């Protein structure tokens, strides 16, 4: 005799079945069938019996906080409703620092407003709620002993009820400064026994920039395994966002040919809010809209739209890999890639809530629009606009893919039919929520294709006359979820089922911060444009983009707020012309400086090509020229690339494909975007005979011969140099005498920093150039800039001081950070 559990109307009922005994063998063939059915049911029952024993403890830390009240308790209740009939038992521990009595009262309040699905009968709802409340207890979790007691209680409960433990979920709905302590306590005293899982759920913010995110990740990584951590980005639980990959997958056939730069005009990823930051300024003042929304929610949506589609879109590992590829292809952001704004009453709210003096003006942006480019074959040249703001005229979120219109329609407009005319707008919108539509939706212009969606989505009708994104709703195939679900409840279900594809892994997080941090740093002192808020914003925040830059469409109006003005803007300064070491100096804020240098290089190139038919340009590596390369790549359509020869000033002794190689920088930021004939590109031969910079391979001599063969008089038209903080230039270092004089055109040298081995043009060769430009940027260069301004010709100590073209011109390009010491 075995105990079996049979399902009766979704509930489990315990019974007995006699399955044994050789004497009980059916003679009739029909009886065999029945026996098999009975055995299957019994087996299923046994499996369910095993599952029934599985218990899950959910510990909600911050159980009386805002997020818990608004979403998490409701999400847990939904999880309970969904899963309890499926062979799991639960206990819910609401936890906080508050003492038990007061905590209990607060938690009871938070639980008052639980609601059931619309189709559940009120009596049934009351019953379920009651059971849920019985399973939910408040407990104070403050000290290490509190955590030990929690562990003991869970174990005692399991033993008492004869349950097998499936796992424990700890949901951190607490500020990040509390993470480390809680994590330590869980790790040391609340891990479940062998065979059961631990899942810890973390809510943003996950750091403030790349460095702090890395620190936090390292700290958490010392307590938890990567697979134990579930970092929530609640936008990944929004139904329309969660539908992006499945939609792309299910409609592969139609989208395969459309989802690329040839067909997509632009992509907009937008989250507008009407609320402001009042009541949250202590958080907001530290973060601002880019950290609060763009770095996470909007970036996640961007990766889902842009990633190469994995074969299996529900494989967490494949999704992550493809996301990371998108991050790798993102073009670095510059100050000019973004516009920022701040609603007018923000500073006043900060002064009031954070007790700041009357003179305080915040620079924290509450509105931002950013132009993002993805440098890969699929998306090159397609603008991705990310935009979010508080105190705007409406609340709405969407990702809109607008397709190019390459058709000409011959018949007059009145004959255009929505489903056929290629001249009507063609767009696909993942409507995340709110707005005039009021719900999540997927909209596909009828002239694109009829999409296929899972059965959990239904065709929708909107209010009559509704227009969306310039077209009547009737011009779209429009779908909405059969059952709307809150993002947190979707994610709680994914956590419960261990579905990691909807969460942010450490690698993903750091890649995102790596992308946003330079922009955040460059905007740190930028005064945001003030806007009145709501409908009154008018066209004040409208923006445009071209040549890789994004700017407000309207001039900055008169200041909206009287009082001390914002910090001076770069445009308040003119480009400064002066002398440095007796040669011309151009100085400006970095952005203008780069544009000026790029213009000068283009002008030199055009002149050289006009006179000699070709232009020989030798470029340095390192970080300063990156912005220049990007500028040349995106904003110089008149550049005679077809007649330009590109040479390297110096190179590290690593393979050319190594990210450390100067050639890689040139390739990533310039070469892949412009059309230089391949025989005009001259990387340094540092890698010969499968080894790096071996004297015997004569790489330096080979390069020198190539220069002599192609460059008249070995005199480059333009050599771009930098200046190191130790006074080095090219790869000519103070500690290494090679290349400062003598006959050699190209030399092998030694750098004090890794990789030590280098190849470099020699000073004599550099000084044969017709023009030498030295680019110096950033605060780190202040000291050396001041020092070198005073020294004479001392190349052994400061190789840069040996740069004196014999008959050519030397021009210094320094940004104010480096120069205004
Ligand atoms: C949060 C931000 O992550 O998302 C808030 O911190 C923002 O500032 C919120 O209001 C918006 O989420 P939702 O779900 O209302 O669109």
Helix % is 25-40%
Helices, by number, come to 22
Task: Kindly report the average pLDDT value.
Answer: 90
Bound molecules: 6-O-phosphono-beta-D-glucopyranose
Percent of sequence in beta strands: 15-25%
Outline type: globular
Main-sheet strand order equals: 16-19-15-14-13-9-12-11-10-20
Distance from N terminus to C terminus (CA atoms, Å) equals: 90 Å
Subunit structure: Homodimer.
GO molecular function: 6-phosphogluconolactonase activity; glucose 1-dehydrogenase [NAD(P)+] activity; glucose-6-phosphate dehydrogenase activity; NADP binding
InterPro entries: 6-phosphogluconolactonase_DevB, G6P_DH, G6P_DH_AS, G6P_DH_C, G6P_DH_NAD-bd, Glc/Gal-6P_isomerase, NAD(P)-bd_dom_sf, NagB/RpiA_transferase-like
Domain Glucose-6-phosphate dehydrogenase C-terminal: 247-537
Summarize the structure.
Its EC number is 1.1.1.363, 1.1.1.47, 3.1.1.31. β1 (2-8) and β2 form a beta hairpin.
Polypeptide structure, described:
This protein is of the alpha/beta class. The strands form eight sheets. A ten-stranded mixed beta sheet has the order 16-19-15-14-13-9-12-11-10-20. Strands 23-24-35-34-31-25-26-28 form an eight-stranded mixed beta sheet. Strands 5-4-3-6-7-8 form a six-stranded parallel beta sheet, with helices on both faces. It has 22 helices and 35 strands. Helix 2 (66-83) crosses helix 3 (100-112), helix 11 packs across helix 15 and helix 12 (316-329) packs parallel to helix 15 (506-523). The chain folds into three domains: 54-203, NAD(P)-binding Rossmann-like Domain (Rossmann fold, 3-Layer(aba) Sandwich), CATH 3.40.50.720; 236-404 and 423-529, 2-Layer Sandwich (Dihydrodipicolinate Reductase, domain 2), CATH 3.30.360.10; 579-818, Rossmann fold (3-Layer(aba) Sandwich), CATH 3.40.50. Strand 34, helix 21 and strand 35 (809-815) form a beta-alpha-beta unit. The chain starts with a strand and ends with a helix. Bound molecules: 6-O-phosphono-beta-D-glucopyranose (BG6). Residues 273, 292-293, 397 line the site of 6-O-phosphono-beta-D-glucopyranose. Residues 273, 292-293, 397 line the site of 6-O-phosphono-beta-D-glucopyranose (BG6).
């Amino acid at each position: 005799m075995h105990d079996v559990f049979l399902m009766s109307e979704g509930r489990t009922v315990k019974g007995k079945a006699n399955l044994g005994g050789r004497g009980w063998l059916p003679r009739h063939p029909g009886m065999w069938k029945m026996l098999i059915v009975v055995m299957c049911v019994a087996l299923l029952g046994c499996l369910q019996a095993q599952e029934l024993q599985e218990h899950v403890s959910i510990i909600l830390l911050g159980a009386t906080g805002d997020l818990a009240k608004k979403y998490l308790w409701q999400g847990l209740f939904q999880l309970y409703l969904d899963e309890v009939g499926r062979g799991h038992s639960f206990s819910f521990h609401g936890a906080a620092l508050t003492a038990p009595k007061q905590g209990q009262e607060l938690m009871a309040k938070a639980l008052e407003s639980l609601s059931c699905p619309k189709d559940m009968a009120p009596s049934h709802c009351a019953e379920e709620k009651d059971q849920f409340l019985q399973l939910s207890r408040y407990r104070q979790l403050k000290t290490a002993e509190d955590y030990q007691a929690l562990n003991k209680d869970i174990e005692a409960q399991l033993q008492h009820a004869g349950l097998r433990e499936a796992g424990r979920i700890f949901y951190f709905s607490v500020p990040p400064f509390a993470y480390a302590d809680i994590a330590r306590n869980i790790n040391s005293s609340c891990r479940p026994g062998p065979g059961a899982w631990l899942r810890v759920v973390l809510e943003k913010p996950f750091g403030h920039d790349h460095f702090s995110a890395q620190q936090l990740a390292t700290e958490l990584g010392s307590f938890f395994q990567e697979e134990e951590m579930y970092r929530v980005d609640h936008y990944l639980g929004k139904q329309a966002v969660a539908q992006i990959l499945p939609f792309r997958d299910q409609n592969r056939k139609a989208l395969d040919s459309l989802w690329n730069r040839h067909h997509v005009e632009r992509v907009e990823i937008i989250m507008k809010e009407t609320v402001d930051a009042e009541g949250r300024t202590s958080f907001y003042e530290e973060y601002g809209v880019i950290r609060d929304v763009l770095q996470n929610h909007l970036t996640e949506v961007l990766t889902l739209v842009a990633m190469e589609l994995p074969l299996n879109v529900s494989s967490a590992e494949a999704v992550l890999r493809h996301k990371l590829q998108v991050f790798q292809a993102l073009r670095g952001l510059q100050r000019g890639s973004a516009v920022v704004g701040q609603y007018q009453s923000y500073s006043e709210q900060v002064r009031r809530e954070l007790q700041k003096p009357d003179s305080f003006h915040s620079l924290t942006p509450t509105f931002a629009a950013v132009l993002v480019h993805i440098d890969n074959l699929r998306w090159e040249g397609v603008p991705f606009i990310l935009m979010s703001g508080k105190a705007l005229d409406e609340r709405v979120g969407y990702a809109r893919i607008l397709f190019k219109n390459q058709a000409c329609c011959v018949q007059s407009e009145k004959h255009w039919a929505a489903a056929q005319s290629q001249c009507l707008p063609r767009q696909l919108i993942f409507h995340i929520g709110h707005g005039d539509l009021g719900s999540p939706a997927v909209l596909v212009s009828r002239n694109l294709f009829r999409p296929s969606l899972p059965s959990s989505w239904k065709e929708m009708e909107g209010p009559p006359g509704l227009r969306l994104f310039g077209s009547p709703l009737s011009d779209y195939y429009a779908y909405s979820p059969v059952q709307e679900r809150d993002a947190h409840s979707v994610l709680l279900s994914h956590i419960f089922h261990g579905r990691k594809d909807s969460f942010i892994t450490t690698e993903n997080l750091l890649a995102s911060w790596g992308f946003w941090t330079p922009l955040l740093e460059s905007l740190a002192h930028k005064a945001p444009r003030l806007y009145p808020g709501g409908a009154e914003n008018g066209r004040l925040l409208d923006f445009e983009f071209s040549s890789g830059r994004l700017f407000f469409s309207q001039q900055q109006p008169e200041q909206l707020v009287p009082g001390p003005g914002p910090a001076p803007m770069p445009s308040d300064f003119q480009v400064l012309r002066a002398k440095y070491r007796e040669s011309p100096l151009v100085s400006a804020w970095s952005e203008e400086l780069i544009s000026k240098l790029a213009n000068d290089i283009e002008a030199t190139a055009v002149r050289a090509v006009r006179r000699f038919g070709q232009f020989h340009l030798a470029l340095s590596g390192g970080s300063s020229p990156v912005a220049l390369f990007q500028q040349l790549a995106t904003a110089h359509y008149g550049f005679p690339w077809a007649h330009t020869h590109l040479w390297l000033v110096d190179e590290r002794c690593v393979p050319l494909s190594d990210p450390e190689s100067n050639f890689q920088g040139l390739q990533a930021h310039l070469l892949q975007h412009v059309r230089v004939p391949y025989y005009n590109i001259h990387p340094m031969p540092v890698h010969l005979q499968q080894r790096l910079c071996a004297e015997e391979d004569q790489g330096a001599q080979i390069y020198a011969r190539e220069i002599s063969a192609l460059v008249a008089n070995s005199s480059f038209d333009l050599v771009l140099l930098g200046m190191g903080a130790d006074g080095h230039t090219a790869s000519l270092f103070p500690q290494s005498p090679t290349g400062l004089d003598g006959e050699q055109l190209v030399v092998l040298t030694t750098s004090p920093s890794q990789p030590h081995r280098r190849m470099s043009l020699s000073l004599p060769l550099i000084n044969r150039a017709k023009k030498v430009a030295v680019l110096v940027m950033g605060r780190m260069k202040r000291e050396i800039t001041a020092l070198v301004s005073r020294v004479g010709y001392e190349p052994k100590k400061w190789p840069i001081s040996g740069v004196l073209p014999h008959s050519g011109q030397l021009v210094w390009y320094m940004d104010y950070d480096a120069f205004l010491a």
